[in-house]
Amino acid sequence: MADGLQQVKNWILERHPERQDIAPDLDLIENRLIDSLSFVEFVFLLEQESGVSIQMETLEVDAIRTLAAIETHFFAAAGATAGAEAVQA
């Protein structure tokens, strides 16, 4: 797991002390680990950790639905460019 992705995971876990871990395929939104109150802060953290500028109006929710999707779109070596294109398209 990339350091930046681990920071994202840690951020989520800090807000949900009842959880010990988050499975890579767990739906973060459906399971209310990211809600409307924390969404903007979460996206800002994701930008900081990944180095990818995220345009809120074009953000594909599926790109941030799971840790696996976040890794693919924002942290994978090949996915970093694809992630930038996905969120800015």
From TrEMBL:
InterPro entries named in the record: ACP-like_sf, PP-bd_ACP
Give the organism's phylogenetic lineage: Bacteria, Bacillati, Actinomycetota, Actinomycetes, Kitasatosporales
Query: Mind telling me what this protein is named?
Result: Carrier domain-containing protein
Q: Which domain of life is it from?
A: Bacteria
Name one matching Pfam family.
PP-binding
- Carrier domain location: 1-78
